[in-house]
User: Which sequence fits this backbone?
């Protein structure tokens, strides 16, 4: 597969759309696991962003609590860091939140379905 720099739209858990820069094709049908991983990273960033806003802390204050740089916090917020579950939990704990995980059955992506019907 030729490496492409594209922008894709992700349907997140709260049904909003996020734009993410990736090195994958527009709809990675060859490896849905990679798509799921990328979507989880974006979701983690959104959870951190929501908690940060609710906590009233600044990125600098959160960085100081975690003993990391402000740029590290920014990368986590943007879904650019593949952080461990431990680091995600610690990040949320520093803002007064706890991490809860759940698994859901995959739902069909309406954007992918529309794209596939358009190209066939």
Assistant:
């Amino acid at each position: 597969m030729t490496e492409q720099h594209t922008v894709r739209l992700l349907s997140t858990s709260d049904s909003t759309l996020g734009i993410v820069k990736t090195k994958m094709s527009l709809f990675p049908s060859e490896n849905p696991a990679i798509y799921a991983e990328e979507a989880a990273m974006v979701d983690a960033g959104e959870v951190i962003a929501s908690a940060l806003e609710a906590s009233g802390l600044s990125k600098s204050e959160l960085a100081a609590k975690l003993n990391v740089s402000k740029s590290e916090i920014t990368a986590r917020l943007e879904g650019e860091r593949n952080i461990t579950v431990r680091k995600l939990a610690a990040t949320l704990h520093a803002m007064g939140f706890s991490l809860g995980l759940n698994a859901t059955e995959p739902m069909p992506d309406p954007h992918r379905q529309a794209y596939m019907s358009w190209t066939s």
User: Anything to note?
Assistant: The chain is about 50% helix and 10% strand.
